[in-house]
């Protein structure tokens, strides 16, 4: 089982100072993220992910650039997005950028493609949010085709000229994709929310699946079963049907310290940075989210280990990624939490799975 971290580079507003002021600049958040990735690499974690947003309250709109900077500061950790908003991107450009990242990093690049939670990229790049499903499905098909072939004709076959859904990308004939990645098949994951059809399509395509567990894992058991059933019916090997999960995360030596430390910073994040304004986020809601059956992983290493193992048993997960750097949490607290993930939680989970 792989373990890693990811961040969207939130820029939380400073509510006690100048109106509109931020607690961190984009430059500071970017530098902190690079340092946290170095720490994760040195501590033995397997993967680091960078999100993509096009808003004033997030630092990262070009995750591949940040990942390239991380690549030059690390040695072994894998580099992925979290997610690439493929609905409003050009698949050819995405592939070329990540092929280049793969070369820069010596074969460590991955793509996590998704529709995205926030809608701001649609007007920015000239797309209609109403078309998000057709845009994503067509562009993901094309991205997978580009991974398999150095020269691409699109649609790939004459009978694709009139597909059941509209084509979102212009036609290509013998289009060259260069450079090629170091990896023979650069991993491309599909990020999903809670739509059953997305799980089925991921299984049919035989691509790894990643889901954010903002609620408890029990809500996703049936959906992951749909994914694996669709994959098996399409003839894909079980080993190719990987499942990764991600959760908001903070670890400390004791559960009480973890909750008391994290709550005020996390409340600021929920109140300011979520897709829909949340209003006041009371402590009792936080404690419920962090309790049994909730999606928030905040607690001692032993508690978090138990909950990751429960998700693994229910969903058959192959990867866990902790969303870190949330809200106004100081750098030192985030670094300590990552160290606990790498040195105590991940080894305990791997040992339990092996036994």
From TrEMBL:
Q: Could you confirm whether the keyword Transmembrane appears in this record?
A: no
Q: Which Pfam families match?
A: Bac_luciferase
Listed A to Z, the keywords are:
Monooxygenase, Oxidoreductase
In this protein, which residues make up the domain named Luciferase-like?
Answer: 1-317
Q: Which PANTHER family match?
A: BLR5498 PROTEIN, LUCIFERASE-LIKE MONOOXYGENASE
Q: What is this protein called?
A: LLM class flavin-dependent oxidoreductase
